[in-house]
């Protein structure tokens, strides 16, 4: 099996990467639990991945009963979407074809369409060769399927979206055990046909106070594991006035800076982390400022209710 996978690594390298579980590899074991919180979302991802295993073994299930295994992850950058899919694939030992959608966009439309087709063809031949589940993951899908894509004209965007959808349809009509996952930071810009074609939608919102408390605790526990002393209280750090609007990635970045300060002999305290959070800046504020600068739309000041992170499941 690993021989086959090795052979595909190169074919995939011009649009993304192939990841697979390899016992001989000593890279850090990726776990879904390294993304803290988002428990409902994780549960749905597990259901999706379990279904894939089921369909891989029970090929005789009627096509009318077979859900198309297409999953769309939406939410702001830094909320763990890419990591969670990589970790789930690793835990389930499903090879993962990670497509960087921006790498599919070429100066000439013909080349873009050829590249899109190639992604699906390579995926089909990999699944056929392995006869076991594979995840095809389009990260930052908006690069090909939205107004913000790098394509030159509206017509070109439309053509690449149509081509993407046709290829997706022809793949999901086959009874191959392939799960198609896509992630986007710009769900509002995503072509609505693309949106509809994904059967399951999972929302990764900016973490609420409880989730931030758990994320701070997670990174503080890692300090303990690494024998790095600190004097911090996750309940304080998670307060709205301190870290509302910060994602897991923002918090992790503040801890990276804290490590540098620690190496310089500074004590890791709540005050230090708060200063570093300010330095890093919260994603929510970045997004607001970006919208303001771009004049995209009037951004009203958010009140606490806007940060309610109750997950919304459109169709699951
Ligand atoms: N909820 C979280 N708990 C712990 N770490 C997180 C969390 N969310 C994000 N991170 C950290 O931020 C990094 C970047 O997340 P990433 O998966 O790239 O986000 P996205 O794909 O949504 O932009 C992750 O690898 C992880 O280290
Ligand atoms: Mg990502």
Strand content: 5-15%
Ligands, ions, cofactors: adenosine-5'-diphosphate, magnesium ion
Q: Let me know the CATH homologous superfamily of the largest domain.
A: P-loop containing nucleotide triphosphate hydrolases
Order of strands across the biggest sheet? Answer: 1-3-4-5-2-6
Instruction: Count all strands and give the number.
Output: 8
Number of helices: 13
In round numbers, the mean pLDDT is 86
Which geometry do the CA atoms define?
globular
Rg is 21 Å
Which architecture of the largest domain per CATH?
A: 3-Layer(aba) Sandwich
User: How would you classify the quaternary structure?
Assistant: single chain
Largest sheet: 6 strands, mixed
SSE order, one letter for each helix or strand: HEHEHEHEHHEHEHEHHHEHH
Structural class: alpha/beta
**Approximate helicity band:** 40-55%
**Total separate domains:** 2
How many angstroms separate the termini? 33 Å
Instruction: Write the CATH fold name of the largest domain.
Output: Rossmann fold
Text of the CATH class of the largest domain: Alpha Beta
Parts with pLDDT < 50 across at least 5 consecutive residues: 297-316
């Amino acid at each position: 099996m690993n021989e086959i996978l090795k052979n595909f690594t190169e074919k995939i390298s011009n649009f993304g990467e192939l990841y697979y579980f390899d016992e001989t590899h000593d890279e850090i074991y990726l776990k879904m639990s390294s993304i803290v919180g988002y428990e409902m979302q994780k549960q749905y991802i597990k259901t999706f991945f379990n279904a894939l295993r089921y369909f891989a073994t029970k090929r005789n299930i009627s096509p009318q009963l077979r859900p198309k295994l297409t999953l769309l992850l939406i939410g702001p950058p830094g909320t763990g979407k890419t990591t969670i899919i990589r970790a789930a694939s690793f835990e389930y030992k499903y090879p993962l074809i990670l497509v960087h959608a921006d790498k599919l966009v070429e100066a000439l439309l013909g080349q873009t369409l050829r590249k899109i087709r190639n992604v699906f063809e390579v995926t089909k031949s990999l699944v056929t060769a392995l006869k076991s589940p594979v995840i095809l993951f389009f990260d930052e899908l908006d690069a090909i399927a939205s107004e913000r894509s790098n394509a030159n004209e509206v017509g070109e965007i439309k053509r690449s979206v149509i081509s993407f959808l046709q290829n997706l349809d022809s793949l999901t009509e086959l009874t191959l055990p392939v799960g198609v996952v896509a992630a986007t930071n710009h769900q509002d810009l995503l072509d609505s046909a693309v949106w509809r074609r994904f059967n399951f939608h999972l929302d990764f919102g900016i973490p609420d106070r409880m989730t931030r408390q758990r994320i701070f605790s997670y990174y503080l526990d890692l300090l303990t594991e690494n024998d790095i002393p600190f004097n911090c209280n996750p309940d304080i750090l998670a307060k709205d006035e301190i870290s509302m609007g910060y994602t897991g990635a923002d918090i992790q970045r503040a801890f990276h800076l804290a490590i540098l300060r620690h190496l310089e002999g500074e004590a890791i305290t709540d005050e230090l982390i708060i200063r570093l959070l300010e330095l890093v800046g919260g994603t929510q504020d970045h997004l607001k400022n970006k919208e303001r600068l771009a004049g995209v739309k009037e951004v009203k000041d958010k009140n606490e209710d806007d940060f309610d992170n109750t997950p919304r499941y459109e169709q699951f």
